[in-house]
Specification:
The longest helix is centred in the N-terminal third of the chain and has 25 residues, at about 30-55. With about 260 residues, the protein is α+β, with helices and mostly antiparallel strands. A 13-stranded antiparallel beta sheet has the order 1-2-3-4-5-6-7-8-9-10-11-12-13. The radius of gyration is 17 Å and the shape is globular. The two termini are about 15 Å apart. The chain has one domain (about 5-10, about 20-250). The chain is about 15% helix and about 50% strand.
């Protein structure tokens, strides 16, 4: 599996100014390379799905990106999200420029997201996101379970997630699969934690949790460290061996 367009459009600012991975990283096996690419795809799609569904908590505004409108009652409403001709979301979860829009319908703690000519960095986004809120509180955030199928050009992702949406960041657990013209992989996401301010770090990546990827029956774990947003380094565990390597170039190498 080569680096996918999905990784690039959602994490395209990763490791601004980072060196080429061959300069500082321990040499990795082909299986570990594939695991890093698949982990990045799963991370990017998970953050995108969480960001899209989280707008159910947003208040109407025209002053930020995106513009947000709400219509309905307190228990049954639709949030319309409009990125216009293009802007970078102010939420802090997606670094790509978005255009077009989406609608988030909420009724009886159920949420459904539909897309309207939505694009991430000029790559069209199709598919669906549906979920259920365990708790909703504008001050305290929410817990949401999400199922989604998202198509980004030649990449399709399917996910089943639980996202804790807090005031300073999100914590994501669940499973994800990635299929593309280059191959496929499945992954388990375990307590991946990202603060909204991490998007402005040298490497906008989580500061905790792990993604375990199944590569042809071999399980390879990618663990995010407390200083990963600053250093771009993660731990890769395979066959009882653990090495530290730079993760960000897998998102930024082709843009």
């Amino acid at each position: 599996m080569t680096i996918t367009r999905l990784s690039i459009v959602l994490l395209f600012t990763a490791c601004r100014g980072a060196d080429d991975p061959a300069d500082e990283s321990t040499p990795l096996s082909p299986e570990e390379e594939q695991a890093l690419e698949a982990a990045n795809d799963a991370l990017a799609a998970s953050l995108f799905a969480t960001d899209s569904a989280s707008y159910v908590l947003a208040q109407p505004t025209r002053a930020v990106c995106p513009a947000i409108a709400k219509d309905g009652t307190i228990t049954d409403f639709v949030v319309t999200v409009d990125y216009g001709d293009g802007c970078t979301p102010s939420s802090g979860l997606v670094a790509a420029e978005m255009s077009g829009g989406l609608a988030v319908a909420y009724a009886t703690q159920q949420v459904d997201v539909t897309f309207d000519s939505l694009a991430a960095d000029e790559t069209s986004v199709d598919g669906w996101i549906t979920g259920a809120y365990v708790a909703v509180g504008l001050g305290d955030g929410a817990t949401i379970t999400l199922d989604s199928e998202l198509d980004f050009a030649t990449v399709t992702t399917e996910q089943s997630l639980t996202a804790e949406i807090g005031s300073v960041g999100v914590v994501v657990d669940g499973t994800a699969s990635v299929d593309s013209t280059e191959g496929s992989a499945s992954s388990t996401i375990d307590a991946v934690s990202m603060d909204y301010l991490d998007i402005w770090a040298a490497c906008p990546l989580p500061h905790g949790g792990s993604i375990t990827v199944d590569v042809d029956g071999d399980e390879i774990s990618v663990t995010f460290l407390e200083d990963t947003p600053q250093t771009g380094e993660v731990e890769v565990s395979f066959n009882a061996f653990t090495t530290t390597t730079t993760f960000c170039p897998y998102a930024s190498a082709l843009y």
